[in-house]
Amino acid sequence: MSQTTEPVLVYHQQGHNPQDADATRLVSRMALRCAGIPTQICAGLTQGSRQGMWWSSIFRCESGSMLGAFMDYGIAFPSYIDAWREAAAAEAAGFTHAWFFDSQLIYSDVYATMALAAEHTSRIKLGTLVSIPSNRLSAVTASAISTINYLAPGRVILGLGTGYTGRNTMGLPAVTVKDFREHTQQVRGLLQGEEVLIREGDRERWIRLLHPDRGDFINIEDHIPIYLAANGPRALAATGELADGWVTGALTPNLEAGFEAIRVASASAGRPTDKPYTVGLTSGCVLRDGESLTSPRVIERVGPNALPGLHAMWESHYGPGANLGITDPDAAAAFHRYIVEYGDARGSQPDRRYLDVHTGHMVFLKPGEEQFISESSIGATLTGTPPQIIERLEEMEAAGIDNVAIACTNAAGARDLIADFGSEVIAKRSTT
């Protein structure tokens, strides 16, 4: 979105409480309205940081643009190599973030996908959602993300997690929180230009990025925030101690408990205790005239993203264990019966059921999986009419979600989401 020379009102606030900044921003916006100045939120531009002590918001007056939107809007891609086309379209439609899933047996390589997106965009922020410590050495992760930062300076976020499909598709459990913490510390140190200690068996070696100042390879001058995906108490503690942001479910029922756990850990580590910048992952679809939650297009767009919880339940009861903290013996048993029948019909080996479970994961529904899709499972996503979605976004915002990351399943679904969410939700929220 191009800059303009329209009149601009800028305010700055110093403090430790992001909620105070939000309140002042709201008062300023209301004051503009009361003064009869037409305003419109311009999504897709930097709003300032909750990480430090200063916040700034810019309101551009007259029609066309105003900076100061409360919530950031993200689209989460299954990392198909040509996602740069949809990332560019999302940027034009007002999305502020493009997130990319990292699961090496399901998608294209996440960093190759992000590199192309970086080359074809100019404002939208690009982040992994999320990379897994065991799947790359810390040095490889640091080199990869700082290379993307060279292509898109200051627009890059590294999301890290303990591993769901990045591990379960190999028949492996999530990495331990100890290894998760160590990997995060090593990557953080490398991105800060420090020497860090790595271990391989009984060997210990010090390493660093050798040529950060050459200008040919990487960029660690522009800060790369690290966000951690966390559900359990130890991972939440690591988030408070080490991270710049928190990744969770957009519809997590008790965000306050997570915020408190992170705050306590931050205080113990001597870090600021502000509420972390919070990314809420969900999926969704804007209903068109005549559609319901169970219309064919809606199920095609959202159905694959409504099943990861069920896949995780299967992993918890029949696999090596999942990291989502979701368990339901009856649901897991029903899905197990289905997956045995599905696999047996294809001649799958019984010791490799996990490969069948995750075939199509967050991409398409396997034949027969539609039986597990219901109105309630679709309703648990960000699917509805534009007014319904806007109402739910306001609830998420009030609960503390700063960035809603809406997953799509393929390029066609991404184009639908970008067009419908951009025009019916982002644009309408911008003018209310």
Describe what you observe in this structure.
- By secondary structure, the chain is α/β, with parallel strands linked by helices.
- The chain has three domains: 8-60, no CATH class; 72-286 and 388-430, Luciferase-like domain (TIM Barrel, Alpha-Beta Barrel), CATH 3.20.20; 296-378, no CATH class.
- The protein has 15 helices and 13 strands.
- Strands 3-4-5-6-9-10-11-13 form an eight-stranded parallel β-barrel, surrounded by eight helices. Strands 1-2 form a two-stranded antiparallel sheet. Strands 7-8 form a two-stranded antiparallel ribbon.
- Helix 2 (84-93) packs parallel to helix 15, helix 3 (110-119) packs parallel to helix 4 and helix 4 (138-151) crosses helix 6 (177-191).
Q: H/E series, N to C?
A: EHEEHEHEHEHHEEEHEHEHHHHHEHEH
Low-confidence stretches: 1-69
Which topology of the largest domain does CATH recognise?
A: TIM Barrel
Which overall shape is indicated by the principal axes computed on the Cα atoms? globular
- Please compute the radius of gyration using only Cα atoms: 22 Å
Distance from N terminus to C terminus (CA atoms, Å) equals 20 Å
Mind telling me the CATH superfamily name of the largest domain?
Luciferase-like domain
Count the DSSP helices. Answer: 15
Strand line-up in the sheet with most strands:
3-4-5-6-9-10-11-13
Using the coordinates above, name the CATH class of the largest domain: Alpha Beta
Helicity, in percent?
40-55%
Number of strand elements:
13
Topology:
Layout: E1 8-14, H1 18-34, E2 54-60, E3 72-77, H2 84-93, E4 97-100, H3 110-119, E5 125-128, H4 138-151, E6 156-160, H5 165-168, H6 177-191, E7 196-200, E8 203-207, E9 226-229, H7 233-242, E10 245-249, H8 255-268, E11 277-286, H9 296-306, H10 308-318, H11 329-345, H12 353-357, H13 375-379, E12 382-384, H14 386-399, E13 403-407, H15 411-430
Parallel strand pairs: 3-4, 3-13, 4-5, 5-6, 6-9, 9-10, 10-11, 11-12, 11-13
Antiparallel strand pairs: 1-2, 7-8
